[in-house]
User: What shape does this take?
Amino acid sequence: MGTNLFYFLVYPGFLFMAVIGGLLSWFDRKITAGVQFRKGPPLLQPFYDFFKLLLVKETILPARGAKGLFLAAPVFAVFGATMAGVFILLPLLNITSGFHGDLIVIFYLLTIPSLSYVIGALSSGNPLAAVGASREMKLILSYELTFLLVMVGIIIKSGQSIDLYQIIHVQQSGVPFIGSVSGVLLFIVVIFCLQAKLALVPFDMPEAETEISDGIFIEYSGTPYAMIKLSKYILFFILPAFVMAILMNGTLLEGINILWAVLKLVAVVLLLTLIRNTNPRVKIKQAMRFFFVWMNLLVIIAIVLAILGL
Assistant: This one.
């Protein structure tokens, strides 16, 4: 029991993910500033932002709406992100948890933050938040099928395994999945799915500051908004880590391999950041068409190639 609590709360759980996620958020903002010819924030700025919201800023509740759901939604978002992160990082860090079939559980846990944002927005009673929630729901329906098909491709390439630890072991005993044609296609698709899950440009239409004034988060302030920031930090770490686990050979925590693991993680985050800074926001109908047609077509081709052993 004590070991499980340590895994969930400290390493590789809540505290570890929050710190690394905050550092990666700084890296994202620093690269963004560089692209825009700005200096960018100091290293600890994401933590300053979080603690200012948590300890200094006032929490203002919406006059209309369900206050209980409004306050509970950010907590559910952090919980879902943390649970998904634990199941991802335990096998990734070669800690045997004794849990089999965790790939399916991870897929469902990763939907909790997005659904929590929708619940929080709809419970606020704000019409702009409702517009953001509508966009978020449509976006979830668009990319979740594609993300599920990516999981199918990974299962096929790993020899029908739904155990993340086994999927990593298969890659480490052979060739990383990204070293094949089908693996490259799956990587392209999953990067766009991550972009949508993180609500980064070009898929940031649920927030859309210039159109609906931060949309789903428009009514949040103070401590609840700090929890939303925290869930975003955690997701910004665990989603690239998940890509490492399913396609990029996982991690080997010995010698130079530690540096190699860090570089792989940073490379995925850098790719997400560059996509974010070199594309305009798309309309929700364009995003739905992009996933339903082009990304699904690409992932189906990848699945066929994986069946053929390519």
